[in-house]
Amino acid sequence: MTSIDISSPKEALGQFFGFTSFKGEQEAIVQSVLDGKDTFVIMPTGGGKSLCYQLPALMSEGTAIVVSPLIALMKNQVDLLRSFGGENGVAHFLNSSLTRSEAVRVKEDILSGTTKLLYVAPESLTKKENVEFLSDIKISFFAIDEAHCISEWGHDFRPEYRRLRTIFNEIKRVPMIALTATATEKVQEDILKNLDIPGANVFKASFNRPNLYYEVRPKKDVAREIIRYVKQHAGRSGIIYCLSRKKVEEIAETLVVNGIKALPYHAGMDAAQRASHQDRFLMEDVDVIVATIAFGMGIDKPDVRFVIHHDIPKSLESYYQETGRGGRDGGEGKCVTFYSYKDIEKLEKFLQGKPVAEQEIGKQLLADTVSYAETGMCRRKYLLHYFGEHLPGDNCGACDNCINPKEYFEAKDDLKLMLAAVKESKERHRARFICDLLTGTETSEIKNYKGDKLKSYGAGNDHNEQHWMAVIRQANVGGFLHKDIESYGNLSLTDLGKDFLKKPVSITFTKERERVDEDAPDEDVMVNGKGGGAADERLMKMLVDLRHNVAKKNKLAPYVIFQENSLEEMTVRYPITVDELTQITGVGAGKAQKYGKPFVDLIATYVEENEIERPEEEAVVRSVVKKSSNKVHIIQNIDKRLALESIAKAKNLSMADLLEEMETIVSSGTRLDINYYLEDRLDEDALEEIMDYYRDADTDSLEDALKEFGSDFSEEELRLVRLKFMSEVAN
Questions:
Q1: In Å, what is the CA distance from 199 to each residue of 39, 176, 192, 356?
Q2: Alpha carbon distance 106, 115 (integer Å)
Q3: N or C: which end of the chain has fewer CB within 10 A?
Q4: With 0-12 CB in 10 A as exposed, 13-18 as middle and 19+ as buried, what is 412?
Q5: Please, what is the average pLDDT of the chain?
Q6: Nearest 5°: CA angle at 256, between 253 and 258?
Q7: What is the CATH number of domain 526-619?
């Protein structure tokens, strides 16, 4: 395939992609590239950025070199291009995931003129053999996707991106197109300067996504709130973002045990597993992906209906790009963020030890994120202002602040006082200094700059720092102040601000939301999951008596039927069906079917007779009590009948640690068949002797078992047989 031999981009659009018309400025952008002009595109997620370089590549002679930051993103784009009906060789990627023979095939397709787009990671461009190869081929143009990675002020800065211009020059000088979904004015300047394309044709689409609804919630009972929210949107696709891999795993598992089809995705997983989870989400085998920011860049799933942030992102650029993955088809997209200032403090700690300039940039980005989370004004208006765009009016009708009635206050005097403080301190300080100045707070910065000697010092101490921060951010959005990014946020007066100081007029601002400092741990979703005592003592006694009778009838110890903490949880949740009983901690489906009917019948009668109002179904969250971090690995390898020593070694566990993990798995209701292992450890008579002991024992106490057998059997052997007993009899 040499190129699409068609006179106009519109005809080519129809032939290759099957579309009848362009979106927004796509056609003008494509024409700019075809005309050999350097081009810079700022277009929100879902606006159709990829087509802006894919179509001209297909229409031009030679191969377009596309720089992309993620292997998963390259694969997604290449698969998509091939699916449109071109030859398989029409698009390739060249990165570390290819075998030597695969890399040779890629180069053969390029040399034959088949390949129109070659996706490369910036690291691949630094390799001498690749530079030499690319220098000898016909290159139509260079495309830099996710171009914000170039800027230190971008939300995903990558140092290797800053070397691209030098590498391109080494290969050959051809036209360039840079594209990004999120770029403040500062980041835009950085990109143009670093790529040395000052005269580029710039196309900037509106950042407004009218179909997205923005909401910030206090971070309290967050796991419970997420479960409730996802169940209210059952069957719909959603993404939940967390900052840490550990939290991703925890939330994904909590969703699964609550009957939600979910999978984790993070950089700690191997490439094959990540690709599998991504594909299952795209193919709708699962509804929800719980992910770190590694997921989603360029993933073209149009019908993501909700994006939840378990943790506040590090910057508004990150937030905008991640929320932008919702509603790409123009349909509903709900963006819910859980916010606690404690998360900001954690992120600030991560900055410690980094170079001073990087710390200052990070702090400024975090300050803007805090302002967004805490503001009482229209969130869409604030967000668009951040990207240099003005939204007319004060009510977008599609954010929590606009939908819920807001409280306003007369801000004339406060605005005047704040602007006077900025002017008096010579317009060389940031918002925090101005707040400390007005409240009369003694800080090292106030002392160093002799702020305590100024008239403004303490002049606004009838309000707190949060109030003054609100005045500053609304004055900034309103055009009374200018925040200088180069100096990390120094404030100065605009002409409008100077005019207001000379002649103040009545003006109203919105009252800000109260800052939430309570960050209730996710473990709060556990309803007596660790045995915190019965909520209904009378019912507890009835359940204990019933357990005794059921155990006697089955000739088993009571603990085998249900453990104490499971009974306690029943006194909180009042399960009245066998299906509901499986949501109780430590009760698997097998155990519920075996022993559950009399228990749920008793509870149903008790609830009816005492007119008890049961918790709403969606508010009942089943928790992972004691998480086995290696659960899947252990279950899969026991199914393969691997020696337990090998399973432990693969995860750097001691045998005692492995047994503890296995006990956690079994106590949650999962059966483990370890007979193959026990047959090599114990003879048949010894095995049966220990099994008989557990059948007759009053408790599963290991200490009692050791006293009974003395030195006949080791602690490890007794634990192993107890695992077999609990798996086969209790589960």
A1: 9, 11, 9, 33
A2: 8
A3: N
A4: middle
A5: 84
A6: 115
A7: 1.10.150.80
CA-CA distance, 383 to 388, in Å (whole number)?
A: 9
State how beta strands 237-241 and 262-265 pair. unpaired
- The Cα 657–Cα 246 span in angstroms is 19
CA atoms within 13 A on the CB side of 613: 1
Q: Which CATH architecture has domain 9-204?
A: 3-Layer(aba) Sandwich (3.40)
Q: Residues 4, 16: contact at Cβ < 8 Å?
A: yes
- Do 212-352 and 631-730 show the same overall fold? no
AA letter at 538: R
* DSSP 3-state of 288: strand
Residues 167 and 126: beta-carbon distance below 8 Å: yes
What is the C-alpha to C-alpha distance for residues 419 and 417, in angstroms, rounded to an integer? Answer: 6
Residue 683 φ/ψ, nearest 5 degrees: -75, 170
Q: Which CATH architecture has domain 212-352?
A: 3-Layer(aba) Sandwich (3.40)
CA 167 from chain centre, in angstroms, equals 33
Q: Name the phi and psi angles at 327, rounded to 5.
A: 55, 40
The residue behind tokens 């002049």 is: 459
Are 422 and 442 spatial neighbours (Cβ–Cβ below 8 Å)? no
Judge contact between 404 and 397, C-beta under 8 A.
no
Residue 520 has pLDDT above 80, yes or no: no
Residue with tokens 């519109």: 10
3-state helix, strand, coil split of the chain in percent (to 5) is 50, 10, 40
| Residue 591 near residue 609 (C-beta atoms within 8 A) | no
Name the token pair of 697: 């024992």
Topology at the third CATH level for domain 412-506: Arc Repressor Mutant, subunit A (1.10.10)
- DSSP string of 449-486? TTGGGSTTTTTTTTS-HHHHHHHHHHHHHTTSEEEETT
Give percent of the chain with pLDDT exceeding 90. 28
pTM, rounded to two decimals? 0.62
**pLDDT tens readout for residues 221-263:** 898 899 989 998 988 999 999 988 889 999 999 999 888 999 9
Q: 197: closest CA among 164, 156, 171, 149?
A: 164
Q: Where are the alpha helices (DSSP H) in 410-536?
A: 412-424, 431-439, 444-448, 465-477, 495-502
685 pLDDT tier (thresholds 50, 70, 90): confident
Three-state secondary structure string covering 641-679 = CCCHHHHHHHCCCCHHHHHHHHHHHHHCCCCCCCHHHHH
The neighbour count for residue 708, using CB atoms within 10 Å, is 13
Other CB atoms within 10 A of residue 232 CB:
10
Q: In Å, how far are 2, 65, 178 from 112, measured between CA atoms? A: 9, 16, 27
Task: Read off the pLDDT of residues 19-48 as tens digits, 9 standing for 90 and up.
Answer: 788 888 999 999 999 999 999 999 887 678
- To the nearest 10 degrees (0 to 180), the angle between helices 702-709 and 715-725 is 120
Please tell me the distance from the alpha carbon of residue 272 to that of residue 713, in angstroms, as a whole number: 43
CA distance 232 to 218: 19
β-pair partners for 291? 241, 265
CA–CA separation, 416 and 393 (whole Å): 23
Please tell me the predicted confidence (pLDDT) of residue 268: 82
631-730 fold? Arc Repressor Mutant, subunit A (1.10.10)
Instruction: Report the distance separating Cα 161 and Cα 69, nearest Å.
Output: 9
CA 127 and chain centroid, separation: 33
Every domain of the chain and the residues it spans: 9-204, 212-352, 412-506, 526-619, 631-730
